[in-house]
Specification:
alpha+beta; two-stranded antiparallel ribbon; 3 helices; 25% strand; elongated
C-alpha cells in the first residue's frame, strides 16, 4: 500500500469511529443546578437539596451519600442519562 492509501484508510476509519460514537451517545437531561446545602438533620438522613426545587434522597450508608457529604456547600449539576 502506498502512503496515500494508508492515509485514506486511516481517515475513513477515524470518521467511522466518530460517527459510531456520536450515534451511540444518549441524550442527557439536566434535572437541577444549584448549591448542595443540607441542614445537619438532612445530611444525617442523606437528603440533599440541590438548588431550590430538587432534593436527592440516598441510602445513609451508601457511597454516594458519603461522597455528597464531602461536597456540601459546593455548587453542582444533577444530570440524568438514560440507558
Amino acid at each position: 500500500m502506498t502512503e496515500r492509501a494508508v492515509a485514506v484508510c486511516l481517515i475513513i476509519a477515524g470518521a467511522l469511529m466518530l460517527a459510531s460514537g456520536a450515534a451511540s451517545q444518549s441524550r442527557a437531561y439536566t434535572i437541577a443546578v444549584g448549591r448542595i446545602n443540607p441542614t445537619e438533620q438532612e445530611s444525617q438522613e442523606c437528603v440533599f437539596p440541590i438548588g431550590q426545587a430538587t432534593s436527592l434522597l440516598l441510602h445513609p450508608h451508601g457511597e454516594p451519600c458519603v461522597m455528597l457529604r464531602e461536597l456540601i456547600g459546593r455548587t453542582g449539576t444533577l444530570v440524568f442519562i438514560p440507558d
